[in-house]
Protein 1
Amino acid sequence: MEEEQIREALNAHWQASAAGDADAEHDIYDDNAICDYPQSGERIVGRSNLRALRSHHPGKPSGFNVKRTLGKGDLWITEYTITYQGRSAFTVSIMEFRNDKVVHETQYFADPFDPPAWRRQWVQEIV
């Protein structure tokens, strides 16, 4: 798969995720895809299990914003924010492709935090 095709597939995936279109969201995954959530120690094996898990989430996302997507060859990273039940999480998705499908994804979720005042003189605020 060419890099431009992967980028298009990722854009379609994230747009479907934001819209709540579970079928289109999971088209990108191989039938035997693995998705790891390192922070909770969970591994979801298989596209059908991943789709079922996400379809049963008690709070549907109310906000979804892709910040950037970077990649080359078969390894792609997307940074985005996702909002569930009024709480935003900064998220990184690392996807590995094989034969035009995602075979492994690792997702990291981080809660926002207030910056400490002591470092204000050296930083800029990002939006």
Note: The two ends are 33 Å apart (CA to CA).
Protein 2
Amino acid sequence: MTDALQEIHDFLPCRTPQAWIDNALANQDLLLIDHAHCEKKAASTALSLMYRYVDNSDLLNKMSRLAREELRHFEQVLSIMGSRGVNYAHLSPARYAAGLRAEVRAEDPGRLVDVLIVGAIIEARSCERFAALAPFLDDKLADFYNGLLKSEARHYRDYLKLAEQANGGPVDDRLATFLAVEQTLIETPDSEFRFHSGPVPAG
């Protein structure tokens, strides 16, 4: 296990349930479609932060790089889908991101701190799920997901560092609030399978 992945496991409140991994393996086309949506949404989030906080040079630089990388990942997922005959289609969003963002404060600087914490958690969970899935996938998809681990781990660290800068210090209390919500979203049953869903019961 790499140091970066160990850091992610230490950060997150729980591991992905085996039931979700089983869901993913049984729904690999849907997994890829939602993965593509996630990469596009991640780029959009980074760009929206750049538009809103134009006076934060560190944020501008980190989010610009992040948006480029997420769009590149989006293109790579589309390419894999194309090679497998999987059509990119609209999907209803998972409850995950909305559940986390429900706790975001309305006014700055608290709003920025919280949005950045949410970004860190989403990137960390994505990294953890790529690593959890890779051993069960075909070689091409496993290599792709393993290749994403480094960038996703860096994105998590970038978001967390920016949150601490925006807060003027540690964000432990807010982080604990969001991680508790995240654990519930990851561990409780979900109605639809998505990349960031909880486990979907059979039947």
Note: Residues 39 and 70 are 5 Å apart (CA to CA).
Protein 3
Amino acid sequence: MSKATYPLKLPASVKGAAARLARQDGVSLNQWIAAAVAEKVGSVETAAAFLRQRAGDAKPAGMLAFLEAAPDLPPDEADRLDEAG
């Protein structure tokens, strides 16, 4: 496995929390951050693959046609936003 170096600047509070969690896991901060990044990459790539699969060959024009066919009604009471948004 090849490795690349990347200077990482973290807010002190995030670095402190990561260091504490790394200690609890019994690993170095570098190892803990590498695992956390790998986990996030896997999560994002899995979600993207799932959405691509679900979309199939759908195109934006198909969604626009669906939206144009929808009735022009106000939202249900439970779906309304208050004035604050």
Note: The mean pLDDT is 92.
Protein 4
Amino acid sequence: MTEFRMPAEWSPHDGCLMAWPTREDLWGSVLAEVKEEYANVARAIAAFEPVTMVAPPGFGEEARALCGDGGGDGDGDRDGGGVTVIELPLDDSWFRDSAPLFVLDGDGNRAGVDFRFNAWGRKHHPYDSDDRISGLLLEHLGVDRIPSGMILEGGAVTVDGEGTLITTEQCLLHPNRNPGMNREQIEGELRSRLGVTKVVWLPYGGLLDTETDGHVDGVCAFAAPGTVVISLPSDPDHPDYARMRANRAVLEATTDARGRRLEIIEVPQTAFADMADGEIEVSYLNYYVANGGVVVPVAGVPQDEEALAVIATAYPGRKVVGVRALAIAFGGGGVHCITQQVPAVRTAG
């Protein structure tokens, strides 16, 4: 039987998948603004690698008009790939969670794990097209499909590519996902489908993250083997001040799959801003690691630059780019939530 593993996000990519936002009942008055933000994210990523934007039927031309060709960043030292728009049936636009999770075998061949999707515990309807989109994408890309009956969103896990996976109990053990599976069964499916050998369970996701029930991609991310970037708000009045310190204590006490103690890089900055007559939080941790770059959501506040500098220390040699993502945060996510990397196939020679 062929053994597959999920590579780390910083491994080489063939490209990035995104989905065009059109859900009026979610975005409401910020729909036009969020389309601009999605297009800006796509163009920022396309400066480093090709982007495929999937639009619902009838919205392809709109996506093309706003995204442009996206190729290159003008400084001559990046291999941008542009933005290609295709049309497939969609309900929503969060490809970190509804697109396949790609895995590689020992020879570098690629497959896609097609987990089930139920709109974060049936919070939005309909979601049947998003439950099917993973299979349609794999067919479009000509990539073998590995089915799984377990409900899992990609934002709920982060991996180091060397056997370690971090997740949160708040999300993966929530009864609205897999009520018929216990912790051991969920961990077994993660090991089987994603090729991990150690699962680290953090107790908490973000308290304000009621949309995803505490995805790990708002909490921490592997930045390199043995290195984790973690959100650690410095303000004692922040709702996650104690919760993120409890998560840090778990990481301090654990080792990865290869027995290494984890180096922890703290992002103490947080960003709150007004959007649609309310206050929303932009998670700096919800970034996308591209070929040679890191695209980070920002809020247009002074803390942005400090957070970008911290993230740059975690990814030496990569260009760190901030992209305004207030409307995306209003919808419940960030740059990582709306993207899904396609790892490069390793070729002989």
Note: The chain has one domain: 4-343.
